[in-house]
Amino acid sequence: MAANPIVMNGWYIGAWADEVGRTLMQRWICGRPVCFYRLSDGSVNAIEDRCPHRRYPLSLGLLDGDVITCNYHGYQIDGSGACVGVAEQPDTPKGAQVHRFPAVERYGIVWIWPGDPEQANPDDIPDVSWLVDENWTHVHGSVGLKARQVLLVENLLDLTHETFLHPSSIGNAAVAATPIDVIGEGNKVSFVRHMIDIEAPPFYKSSMGVTTNIDRWQDGDFYAPGIFILNIRIAPTGTEEPEGFHMKVIYGMTPATETTTHDFFALGRDYKIDDAELSEFQLKQQLAVMKEDVDALEIQELMVATDPGMIESSIRSDVAGIRGRRLLEKMAKAEAAARGEVTARPRPVRPAATPEPAGQA
Amino acid sequence: MAANPIVMNGWYIGAWADEVGRTLMQRWICGRPVCFYRLSDGSVNAIEDRCPHRRYPLSLGLLDGDVITCNYHGYQIDGSGACVGVAEQPDTPKGAQVHRFPAVERYGIVWIWPGDPEQANPDDIPDVSWLVDENWTHVHGSVGLKARQVLLVENLLDLTHETFLHPSSIGNAAVAATPIDVIGEGNKVSFVRHMIDIEAPPFYKSSMGVTTNIDRWQDGDFYAPGIFILNIRIAPTGTEEPEGFHMKVIYGMTPATETTTHDFFALGRDYKIDDAELSEFQLKQQLAVMKEDVDALEIQELMVATDPGMIESSIRSDVAGIRGRRLLEKMAKAEAAARGEVTARPRPVRPAATPEPAGQA
Amino acid sequence: MAANPIVMNGWYIGAWADEVGRTLMQRWICGRPVCFYRLSDGSVNAIEDRCPHRRYPLSLGLLDGDVITCNYHGYQIDGSGACVGVAEQPDTPKGAQVHRFPAVERYGIVWIWPGDPEQANPDDIPDVSWLVDENWTHVHGSVGLKARQVLLVENLLDLTHETFLHPSSIGNAAVAATPIDVIGEGNKVSFVRHMIDIEAPPFYKSSMGVTTNIDRWQDGDFYAPGIFILNIRIAPTGTEEPEGFHMKVIYGMTPATETTTHDFFALGRDYKIDDAELSEFQLKQQLAVMKEDVDALEIQELMVATDPGMIESSIRSDVAGIRGRRLLEKMAKAEAAARGEVTARPRPVRPAATPEPAGQA
């Protein structure tokens, strides 16, 4: 039983589509080694990266057509993960098969379902069609995080941290000072933070040339277990929708192991979409902000790991984060129960000392 | 239950007073992260270095007056460790509080009590007033040790190792050849070793200009759990007290974790107290000697950790060390019992094959 | 109970004879620190490298005649591992003794028996007298491997991997394509692979100047728990024995810890025995091949450690490897039972889906 369980049943970002080609690539997803590549018809494929023979990584093998030949003893594995032959004998070993993960290429993303394939329904993939919308442009990438995934989930579901951790870029006092409305529904947690008539934080001043006060919207949607989408609107105060600058951010928070996480991101905008210099600036800025988060979360991981039983204090701005955390715990518990296991005690959280604000589900 | 329990109830050296100021400093003490700093009135303060909100280190926050603002979400923590406000809401979260450690600044040392505050009595701090006596001068510092604390305790309580580990500085054959008298009383273990009419070891020859045979006294006091004081007298043989050179050494043996230790030291003398060059020499020499100990103890840690059950052979010169070790085991066991835990089996030691010398308590 | 038990009762290679002299050397063998050196009569000696007093490595001490003086507190340990004196008191501590391992110098090898000395019989040391036969010459050395020993055993007992892992040196298609005969008897597993009228692999072309097709024999003998000997014959097809080139390889697969292994090797030949340039080439080539194995096995170790319960698929060419693995498991289990322990569940292996070839014991 894991002390820090990972939710297996869910669509995670496994890779950016432009990372996956005819070169075999190993990436650990939810504690399992995955071999990513494209079949000869161009479709993406993801199989367990352990040869069924002696567990050597298939990603170190040779891809020819749709068949990988393992580089240790030559087992030949087709796109379904089945062994279709060996060099040592004419007959194919029976039942030699590695797991093929449900994988879907959509919106420039390779989505992967690490859990029970029977439950994988591509209709459940969140709509991020703006990534391929011609009226939008975006930058994207990923960073590695040596911290458990839930800490990243909570980081994104409570953006008040921008005020303190990112004051030189996207944070200022208005973020922490503005309450959120939170709506939870099924495997989704949403929050709405509308900051009206505030000073623009440094990043927006420089990237948008804003000089007046602005209205800034931060509307976030967490699709448990691993996707977070942030809808941003920045406009001089008083501007009516749909005028103003719009941005969207997707984070793919994919556990690599119980204590490490892939942090995929894309940052899109609907303005100056042909401005390559701005894109370059935004990518650089985004990576700088994420470095501040990564540094903080890796320290937080150490503090959590060395006192797993500490009861945390919470306030109203934590409502979305706590819901996200509890959702993950609930999902992990249900999966463990379905496997006949008993889950670990959830990370303790002290209920907010004050009543939650009205308007929450 | 820890395999290598740490005694929590005791005054340890947390820092040298000159290390602590208005810049927040994290240091792990007995397995707990501590944030050291000075309040606006100049007094030292030590609080748990985990924000009560999401455990982020407070030492990464901003100190203004007596309040630290956490750099993750802005919890404001006063000198008592209590949250006195947040930026996210007007009302202060109730019950949000981190532990404040009993801390006392005395003799240029910041003393800390990692355990139950109710049992902390500053009167129990050993008298090392020579550190601030105008007739004395001293050098001080600290080194990190990747070994469990008890190995350092035993190292200091059995100075026969000087003969073998430090032959080029403070050791020669006389140390190992001269028996000790040992007295144990309460939480203190003392030994007396008087070497009469012996050759001076290299360090004393060079630092004191001694050319004749000497009398050398090594009188040690271990104040469990973490303080060791050595009283040294060096004098040409036949010189009567109080003539001769006197030196005092304090070691603060403070567990950082179960297998790492802070090794604080100060080396004082009552002669040539204005000789800055001598002070510089003594500091350099002391650090060289301690490096020999650190190297040896880190290797010993590996040998102990890989065979925790080995029964050790002991001789009469081990009497002080064994008493020190047993005292720590007894204290840890009592603390565990008070917490309702069961302690680990103590590290086995074979009784000395020969009777202990007379004159011991 | 170890998850990956080590067989203790067996003659392992502890060192090459030319590694052991009057300088004390520490090497971990089967989870125990061993101090290797030569006594004053030139004979090799191997004792537990933990002082019976406070476990400090004796290998850091001073050897004078046949006595090591520990560098921490001066225990004097003779060649039998017994303490024969201390500097601190006139009487010798009773019962202070470290383990002396049965050790034999033979064929230029220091053989060591890590387990029960009563069971150690030098007659059980495999005959590798070709290492000291004047009609042969050899190169030798060792490499470190961060993988459990059994993975190296299986690597050597299934040479079909040469086809895939070593195609630029000793492997080509013929190796995987040629079935083996396997004979198991007592603590020995042997296989015979005779490749007739095949193209020579690159290594043999270059080192022997072979241009025609060849017959290549690979006859392997695994002497459990830790010795593997390979008998090689290379000759232009049709050449009758005893004509042709003969080579012999010994691998000493000595566990250092449960997950690290010493990989000793010697590569001998009966041709051009005075050709120093060829020896140099063969040593370089051998180390290059072993680097390919080490890299692969260290990756395999990770894949095994992260999914210890995976059931592996097997084929007929695995028969020797599986027998070797089971032999080790059986020996470890018997040793554990003799110690009154329960062993870990063996690493699962799926039976070959097709019947084993005839002719096997």
Jot down its keywords.
2 domains, 30% strand, 4-stranded antiparallel beta sheet, Naphthalene 1,2-dioxygenase Alpha Subunit, Chain A, domain 1, homotrimer, 361 residues, alpha+beta, Rieske Iron-sulfur Protein
CATH topology of the largest domain in chain A: Naphthalene 1,2-dioxygenase Alpha Subunit, Chain A, domain 1
Main sheet attributes: strand count, strand direction, barrel closure of chain A: 7 strands, antiparallel
- Uncertain parts of chain A: 351-361
**Total beta strand runs of chain A:** 17
Q: Outline of chain A, from the CA principal axes?
A: globular
Structural class of chain A: alpha+beta
Assembly type of the chains comes to: homotrimer
Look at the structure and give the CATH class of the largest domain in chain A: Alpha Beta
CATH architecture of the largest domain in chain A: Alpha-Beta Complex
